[in-house]
Amino acid sequence: KAAAEAAKQQAATSNAAVANVDDLTLMAAIIYCEAGAEPYETQVAVGAVIMNRIRSVGYPNTLYGVIYQRGQFGPARTGKLARVISQGKATSSCYQAAQAALAGTDNTGGCLHFNDYNGTRNGLILGGMVFW
């Protein structure tokens, strides 16, 4: 029981830390989590999807809201995103992609979703990911 309470406290602390980072850091970190090993154009596309969601009526209208929307981004739910932020792991490429996406670059044509490409979904394929 004490271990469960400690884990709950740690999650609350790391979520509070994430809530206090600037948009560039948050965007770079989620790009790192989702597409850190992908080519730059794929990293930009992940950021573009997030920005497209912010502009869409079907999603929250803030970066934090989109990333932490229930059931959407696994790294936000598992704590990986918070660890990447606290450890400063996002690469310079992820920061550049985040800057481009935040500035309005959209190389997806308005896509609202992405996933690893496994050959079964139609859409825009960039690197090892598919966007639709």
Summary tags:
132 residues; mainly alpha; three-stranded antiparallel beta sheet; 3 strands; 58% helix
Figure out the total of helices.
Answer: 7
Helix fraction?
55-70%
Structural class: mainly alpha
- Any idea what the radius of gyration is? 15 Å
Helix and strand sequence: HHHHHHHEEE
Query: What's the mean pLDDT score?
Result: 90
Strand order of the largest sheet: 1-3-2
Please count the beta strands (DSSP E, at least 2 residues each): 3
Low-pLDDT runs of 5+ residues are none
* Main sheet record: 3 strands, antiparallel
User: Tell me, what's the shape?
Assistant: globular
How far from one another are the termini? 43 Å
Instruction: Tell me the fraction of residues in β-strands, as a range.
Output: 5-15%
Describe this structure in words.
The chain is mainly α and 132 residues long. The protein has helices spanning 2-19, 23-35, 40-55, 63-67, 74-78, 80-87, 92-102, and strands at 114-116, 124-126, 129-131. It has a 3-stranded antiparallel beta sheet, covered by helices on one side. Strand 2 and strand 3 form a beta hairpin. Helix 1 (2-19) packs across helix 6 (80-87), helix 2 (23-35) crosses helix 6 (80-87) and helix 3 (40-55) packs parallel to helix 7.
Task: Please provide a brief summary of the model.
This protein has 132 residues and is mainly α. It has helices at 2-19, 23-35, 40-55, 63-67, 74-78, 80-87, 92-102, and strands at residues 114-116, 124-126, 129-131. Helices cover 58% and strands 7% of the residues.
